[in-house]
Amino acid sequence: MVIDVKHRTARPGPFATICFVRSSLLLFLSGALFAQTGDNVLLVVNRNSDASRQIAEYYRPRRSVPLANVCTIGTTTAEEIDWKTYVSGIEEPVAACLKKAQLVEKVLYLVTTLGVPLKVDGPGSGTLSEHASVDSELALLYSKLKGGKPERTGWVPNPMFMRRDAPFQHPVIPIYVVTRLAAYDVNDVKAMIDRGLAARNRGKFVLDMQSEKDDEGNNWLRTAALLLPDSRTTLEATTRVLYNQREVIGYGSWGSNDGHRTERRLHFDWLPGAIAAEYVSTSARTFHRPPDEWKYTSWSDRLHFFAGSPQGLIGDLLHEGATGASGNTYEPYLAGCARPDYLFPAYQRGRNLGDSYYISLPYLSWQGVVAGDPLCVLK
User: In this structure, are residues 96 and 139 in contact, taking their beta carbons and an 8 Å threshold?
Assistant: First the structure.
């Protein structure tokens, strides 16, 4: 059954209680308090990628990003790189762009593009791994420019995590928010950009728990439902999978990790500005498009993996009509996934896409990728 959040009971944790106490204050926050513009964006373009250049040319005038805020680098177009390539081909050139144009403080958002490498391969395993997404590592660049020396091994706590009512500004929050204008192809990315510009604060938040089990991931979805408007929230707490939902502005679920999900495509009616977050380990492992007939499979069925994994891809969500989505390049563990109980309430109350996702991400220098225009906001 689908639970009507106005009539169901739940057991909110300490975070939910605190947020209810503060909710009346949050409703009075002015949208201008969190407003950012193209002046606060550094657009990162790989000159060796046609897709990267085309996306930058499309995005820059639509968000009025100054020419001085376009950082052109020349590196490989491979999705996976080593640390040496990351440092010399991406991090150091981006740092040089920021310093040369005197943008270290003014820029808050680094926007990478399809064609800029996606992930960094490194030694180690588990929580001591040196695997990371390029974007999550770039988020630490502000700290590094200020003399910080974060550890490469494992994750680094995100200083923006949970700070839903704190304006994002330097040096108070000493990071860059990094999002990626990427999907299966240039046309998909252009459509994402257009939908972001047309975003409006309407539609419903669809939260699919996979079961009534009292576990961490399900409880985050329950808490998200408590913090969102009752009339705009659908919470599914049984094994039924939600497909064919209409007027969706937010979607949270277990994705392909829901053992009851049999269809790769959700067949949603996504509204402009809609965002998504799923608890899936490798959903941002690639932006190469799978064959239409490809289906989710199991870890034991290696013959039918796509790009090294049987799991779903955020590219499918973006291709179907989502404006933004979060995923992971390698195993983040559940604790490292975007938290719906921070993401969706922040977004619904006026934080832009970039801020909302980073408020929901516990760790940096880790596996997270946020696809979308950071300046997208529900007006």
Answer: no
pTM for this entry: 0.91
CB atoms within 10 A of CB 305: 14
CA neighbor of 337 nearest in space, from 289, 276, 271, 286: 276
Quote the CA–CA distance of 129 and 152 in Å, as a whole number: 9
CB-based contacts of 290-298 (< 8 A; 24+ apart in sequence) = 294/264, 295/264, 296/256, 296/261, 296/264
CB 191 within 8 A of CB 320: no
Distance CA 125, CA 16 (A): 34
User: Cα(320)–Cα(317) distance, rounded to whole angstroms?
Assistant: 5
**Measured between alpha carbons, how far is 90 from 47 in angstroms, rounded to an integer?**
12
Q: Is the bond into 229 cis (omega within 30 degrees of 0)?
A: no
Contact 314, 371 (CB under 8 A): yes
Q: Where are the alpha helices (H) located in 50-185, listed in sequence order?
A: 50-62, 83-86, 92-100, 134-138, 141-145
What are the residues facing 371 on neighbouring strands? 180, 325
- Is 116 within 8 Å of 42 (Cβ atoms)? no
Cα–Cα distances in Å, from 344 out to 33, 223, 305, 355, 360? Answer: 18, 11, 31, 11, 9
> What is the residue-level pLDDT of the chain in tens, covering all 379 positions?
333 343 333 344 444 434 433 443 444 344 556 779 999 999 999 999 999 999 999 999 999 999 999 999 999 999 999 999 999 999 999 999 999 999 999 999 999 999 999 999 999 999 999 999 999 999 999 999 999 999 999 999 999 999 999 999 999 999 999 999 999 999 999 999 999 999 999 999 999 998 888 899 999 999 999 999 999 999 999 999 999 999 999 999 999 999 999 999 999 999 999 999 999 999 999 999 999 999 999 999 999 999 999 999 999 999 999 999 999 999 999 999 999 999 999 999 999 999 999 999 999 999 999 999 999 999 9
